[in-house]
Design goal:
Helix content is 56%, strand content 1%. With 284 residues, it is mostly helical. α2 (27-38) crosses α6 (87-108) and α10 (215-236) runs antiparallel to α11 (240-261).
């Protein structure tokens, strides 16, 4: 072999080794191997979902941008051992899931989308005040409590039963679920229950119909649904400060609707009076 041939051979080996290193260092490639080991049993070999939900599709992609998805994976996965994965591993999995998702979305664009089944509307079982006090109020309070209590704080046995001498909304279920899971569920409750404010036929506590066709009412309902989703994404980071910040948005969403449809000046009062039930569900 001539010296020229030897140099060319060495150069080829170096290029090959460099290409191998690049491939080995590709986050999505590493993520694919990690996904097979850690995630496929629940989410399916092709991310199609199995025991766990699918990790592909437009809805998933729009709900979980890269930064939020990586944080969710690191802090809440795998479900039976959350926090097991490192930040690098979570980033690798995110890269793989997003790459696979783009390929799946591109193929799905040519597929026929099945028609959605018609929505089934159930008549309202309670008035608007009961809906607020039964669902929105207690679950908002769980989120507000994150401002002063770390959901990761360890609870002692029987805490929920003895807190404040009786039942405590913010402690409910703490003997069954972790603090962060309770915040997750509270955020989902807000997002899922907000559309109930648009149920036809529901009435206010004073007997007036809920103004479900009013543009402002619709806008405030959508705002609450979106802030519930945002609170869930924040909760998935397991970061107390982030949830504390989003709790301000929850309070604002409540306040925006209250100022227009609830807080009216009562008889003999010039200021807004939340106790004035006669004016609720109306503007002005």
């Amino acid at each position: 072999m001539s010296s020229h041939d030897g140099s060319l051979f060495v150069y080829t080996l170096v290029l090959g080794a460099f290409a191998f290193v690049l491939t080995a260092q590709d986050p999505a490639t590493r993520g694919q191997a990690l996904y097979t080991q850690q995630c496929a049993s629940c989410h399916g070999d092709s991310l199609e979902g199995r025991n766990g939900p699918p990790l592909v599709g437009r809805d998933f992609a729009s709900s979980w941008p890269a930064s939020d998805l990586s944080s969710k994976i690191k802090n809440t996965m795998p479900q039976d051992n959350p926090g097991k994965l490192t930040a690098t591993e979570a980033g690798d999995l995110t890269a793989y899931i997003q790459r696979a998702g783009k390929a799946t979305t591109g193929n799905a664009a040519q597929a026929t989308v099945p028609a959605s089944p018609p929505a089934t509307l159930f008549p309202a079982a309670g008035n608007l005040s009961q809906l607020m006090r039964g669902i929105m109020f207690p679950n908002s309070n769980i989120i507000f409590t994150v401002q002063t209590h770390d959901p990761a704080e360890k609870k002692t046995a029987g805490t929920a039963a003895t807190a404040a001498g009786g039942f405590n909304w913010t402690m409910w279920g703490s003997d069954l679920y972790s603090g962060w899971e309770l915040v997750d569920y509270a955020a989902i409750a807000l997002a899922e229950s907000a559309p109930l404010m648009l149920t036809p036929g529901r009435r206010c506590e004073n007997g007036k119909p809920v103004p479900i066709d009013d543009p402002d009412w619709i806008k405030f309902t959508k705002e609450m649904a979106e802030v519930g989703k945002a609170a869930y994404r924040a909760s998935q980071t397991r970061d107390q400060e982030k949830v504390s910040e989003i709790s301000g948005d929850v309070a604002d969403a409540c306040s925006h609707c209250h100022q227009v449809f609830r807080d009216k000046a009562g008889r003999g009062r010039s200021n807004f009076d939340p106790a004035n039930k006669a004016g609720r569900c109306t503007k002005g």
